[in-house]
Amino acid sequence: SKVLVTGATGFIGIWVTRTLLEKGYSVRGTVRSERKGKYVLDYFKSYGEKFETVIVEDISKEGAFDEAVEDVDAIAHVASPFHFKADDPQDIIGPAVNGTLGVLKSALRNNPTLKRVVITSSCATVLETLPEPKVFSELDWNEQCLKQVEEKGKAASNGAKYQASKTLAERAAWEFYEKHKSEISWDVVVLNPPYVFGPVIHEVPSRGSLNQSSSDLLDALIAPSTSASAMSTETLTTDGSCWIDVRDLAEAHTKALETPDAGGERIITSAGAYIWQDLIDVAQGLSPPAVLPPQYKLAVGVPGGGKGAIPKIDYDTAKAARILGMKYRSREDTIRASIEKVLNRGW
Ligand code: NDP
């Protein structure tokens, strides 16, 4: 059967595409331009006609996906802006919400035999910044970011703007699904991953164009002497997040497409919590040592300095284990790949 993957040129999208192709699916990937499509067509050329591209220049344009959704059995909607650079919150909320609604509207209009839509949401729609540590679950929603963006507009933090884009997009998807449930042949599954790390296989012409999460990890792992954007010691030893390997997340997407019981569910997929320094310690402790190109050195930070810090945010992942049978790669595996399979680009 054939799956439409939106954002097939991105960090996660290309991995979802690759994993589906490896499992024998045909994939149609959306790309913004013919030029960007060339890279993925070349990357997947061994799959011949099983991989094709369709140009969707801007996901927020009305009817952008009308053609793309035709005749596919399922959709993985991965495309959405992920950066911390929006000035006006609408610059990021617009494409996130309209992109998601656009896929669903086109599916409703143009694909009467569709079976499932999997949407890549985020833990950004779940978490809040609270005074005490909390284990969040699928029942939690990030109201905080919405309030901040509403009250502060352009002055809201860049994190809050991104979180609001994902929260409003996911909410719009659930509202659309509830409204049209009785008239459609398909259902919706939402995946909520935290920070995604791991090997980078998409086109990245420069350090500056690296996707946000891979870039943030390098800010922690690369020594300040060889990095223009290294994290402060304070951040390294007190701050952190949760993570999943991009290969595990791609696997979660295929499981979400294949598992009947996943229909209508919101599912958090997280391998666990960390303090940034913990990841440096993992990188330093790799055996054999990670191989870096000569222009980079591994950060040292404050060895063991993350041990005393309690992660503020963690997730209950029982649902992903129960419904999708999710298992996660080790930190060592992910951190090695995040160094060796990211810094091998020559920049
Ligand atoms: P990337 O930036 O690598 O990928 C985003 C993809 O979406 C790219 O293919 C991009 O195309 C496309 N895209 C963005 N805006 C538009 C637009 N207006 N019109 C057409 N295409 C667009 O990021 P990721 O792979 O990391 O993110 C993919 C998804 O995963 C997003 O929904 C993100 O919110 C979600 N996510 C990511 C996490 C992470 O840590 N990486 C964590 C949780 C969720 P182009 O590159 O050509 O602009």
CATH architecture: 3-Layer(aba) Sandwich
Radius of gyration equals: 20 Å
H/E element order:
EHEHEEHEEHHEEHHEHEEHEHH
CATH fold title: Rossmann fold
Class of secondary structure makeup: alpha/beta
User: How many DSSP H or I helices?
Assistant: 11
Tell me about the largest β-sheet.
7 strands, parallel
Show unreliable segments.
none
Order of strands across the main sheet: 3-2-1-4-5-7-10
Question: What is the count of structural domains?
Answer: 1
What is the straight-line distance between the termini?
Answer: 39 Å
CATH superfamily: NAD(P)-binding Rossmann-like Domain
How much strand?
15-25%
Bound molecules: NADPH dihydro-nicotinamide-adenine-dinucleotide phosphate
Give the rounded overall mean pLDDT: 97
Kindly state the number of beta strands. 12
Written account of the structure:
With about 350 residues, the protein is an alpha/beta fold. It has a single domain, classed as NAD(P)-binding Rossmann-like Domain (Rossmann fold, 3-Layer(aba) Sandwich), CATH 3.40.50.720. Helix content is about 40%, strand content about 15%. It contains eleven helices and twelve strands. A seven-stranded parallel β-sheet has the order 3-2-1-4-5-7-10, with helices on both faces. Strands 8-9-11 form a three-stranded mixed β-sheet. Strands 6-12 form a two-stranded parallel ribbon. Helix 1 packs across helix 8, helix 3 runs parallel beside helix 5 and helix 4 packs across helix 5. The longest helix is centred in the middle third of the chain and has 23 residues. It is globular and about 55 Å long. The two termini are about 40 Å apart. The mean pLDDT is about 95. It binds NADPH dihydro-nicotinamide-adenine-dinucleotide phosphate. The site of NADPH dihydro-nicotinamide-adenine-dinucleotide phosphate (NDP) has 26 residues, from helix 1 and strand 8.
